[in-house]
Design a protein that fits this description.
The structure is a homodimer. By secondary structure, chain A is an alpha+beta fold. Chain A has helices spanning about 120-140, 180-195, 200-210, 250-270, 295-300, 315-320, 330-340; strands at about 5, 15, 55-60, 70-75, 90, 95-100, 105-110, 145-155, 165-175, 215, 220-225, 235-240, 275-280, 305-310, 325.
Chain lengths: ~350, ~350
């Protein structure tokens, strides 16, 4: 059983993945980055190679594992957290730990063996967002979970693994991740003083200034944040205040699909198809009323967003151990470059 | 002028290194990992290739840039922070920033062109520690600085750069790094409840249990922490409670020199000379009496230590964006492996 262990000094939780233990010898082999496609478990027609489908978008929505789908959600075959069991939260001397309970699901973003999401038609993005929302709503029903993280790893440097089939992941966790908790605390502190949402204020200022804006759509703002940790770090915000990604209205969802595609195309064009990660930051589940979980206040003070990080540079020891980042590209330059890129007209018309 | 920018949401400071800006084209070139040695600025006899020496350990201690030294401290030729100027802390709309003022120094750990510190005689480690302490004491006199970070990057994956000459770095910063601040807050919270140091309690428990201990010496304990973020993560603690590395007594310094050498030898042997980073976590400077800087309470509740991270696995998006780490090697296994390694007797006798 994997374990969730809490660092007693700063309160960070770590998954000790006891079921896929790596020993010294495992770190000595060189990584095989080659992509397999003939036995890719995520390709249309290979449905039998995955565990039982959780959900899918297809013409008639049934759960038969058969071709004809647009987007498919399946359990990870190497789950970081296990779905069965109780949390069993307990002490071990002065330490805190619990069993590694959670959900780990793969969103297969296309039936075709395509690696880079930037090449998908914008409709696929919309189906992916629909699937993610549906999974989050479903996972929230499980009272053991406090949070669902939706994220994408693209490129082997970014942790995408051996199979180059476009996909993202959802991990539902029994604790709120530290970074999100810090954001909730920061947002609340600001709200207590100003009675306004920090990120709403930030968007007003950024749109007035313009220098860090990458693009705007009807419902979304894309920018390189003022204190960007990484070159070409990109955040995507809804203009309308909302703490909860899962309640995104249909027109915003369509707009976000378009924006995501545009952002990935610009990134690909600007940096020659770089590896990247993106991750959704949204409110913890409503039913969780712990220290950071008072839904009414989170509704007022938190603002969901997507953080995207191209994996261009290596982190050195200074940054690991200090939490103090060094960014060699001012976000104003990153934003200007991405903003002024000329992207072929094809992509701007693709969603009706 | 580089800038220090504060993230408004979670309070993290980022160095925007405006003087070595990297643009998209810079990220496309492949890295040259080859080591130069004939024109290595850190080798004995090449003293004229570095900026003016800050300090050195040599038979007669003068500042003439000439051969005959054991350890040499020089300014970085690509400083992340600049030594000249005022902090000029200010607002920019809703954001906080200040000029990138600080010190960035290189500790050249041997006159010889050796890459791996594990191969140095233990006396060199002692001279390095002496040099670090002296630099920290000196940097504390500068009222602009709140903290000095001593760290080492070994191997190009760990950010060591192009020249493979053994060295470490000190960066003095006008803010306390976020990770250290979090530790100070965690340590204080524990002390307020128990009136004991959290890390002293942790050491008692770990030494009783033994399963995560790598080694013990007269004055030091080396262990793999309970909530290790990484395989073979190693922390080194003094047994005696002390918040301040710079006040380390001479006998502890000698003992630590021996322990550092042993740890690096074990690491090299266990993982086939892996890249790694280590970083000292010690109290902020005494004169800083800000939110986390009350020296009297820090003296009671904080405990300096060194955190070492072998760079064996890549971080994926999940970990970046969530602060939630996945460690595939339980620390008990890492510790057992390192503890039971047989190291040749040579190294245990090298310091008198």
């Amino acid at each position: 059983m994997p374990e969730l262990r809490k660092d007693p000094l700063i309160g960070r939780w770590v998954i000790i993945a006891t079921e896929r233990v790596r020993r010294p010898v495992d770190f000595l082999t060189t990584q095989d980055d080659s992509s397999v496609s003939e036995d890719c478990p995520f390709c249309e027609g290979h449905e039998a190679l995955t565990p039982k489908e959780i959900s899918a978008i297809r013409s008639e929505n049934d759960l038969t594992a058969r071709p004809g789908w647009k987007v498919r959600v399946v359990p990870s075959i190497m789950p970081l957290l296990r779905i069965e069991g109780k949390l069993n939260r307990r002490a071990k001397g002065m330490y805190d730990l619990m069993d590694g309970i959670g959900a780990h699901e793969i969103i297969v973003e296309s039936p075709h063996h395509i690696a880079n999401a930037a090449e998908l038609p914008v409709e696929q993005f919309h189906w992916v967002l629909q699937s993610v929302v549906a999974r989050m709503v479903d996972l929230e029903r499980d009272s053991r979970f406090r949070y669902a993280l939706w994220f994408k790893n693209y490129g082997s440097v970014a942790g995408a693994g051996r199979i180059a089939h476009v996909r993202s992941q959802i991990i539902a966790t029994p604790v709120t991740p530290k970074r999100v908790k810090e954001e909730l605390v920061g947002a609340r502190r600001y709200f207590e003083e100003k009675e306004r949402c920090l990120l709403c204020d930030l968007l007003i200022q950024e749109r007035e200034l313009g220098e860090r804006i990458v693009m705007e759509s009807a419902h979304m703002v894309v920018l390189c944040p003022f204190a960007s940790r990484f070159p070409f770090e990109i955040w995507i915000f809804p203009k309308r205040h909302s703490c909860d990604f899962a309640s995104i209205p249909s027109e915003e969802q369509k707009d976000l699909a378009n924006v995501l595609k545009q952002v990935l195309l610009r990134l690909k064009s600007a940096l020659n198809d770089p590896p990247y990660n993106y991750l959704l930051h949204t409110a913890p589940f409503r039913h969780h009323n712990g220290k950071v979980g008072h839904w009414k206040t989170i509704e007022a003070d938190y603002h969901w967003h997507i953080e995207l990080i191209p994996r261009l540079s290596r982190l050195a020891g200074f940054e690991w151990g200090s939490g103090f980042y060094i960014n060699p590209t001012p976000p104003e330059e990153s934003a200007k470059y991405l903003r002024e890129l000329v992207i072929e007209p094809e992509i701007t018309t693709s969603y009706a």
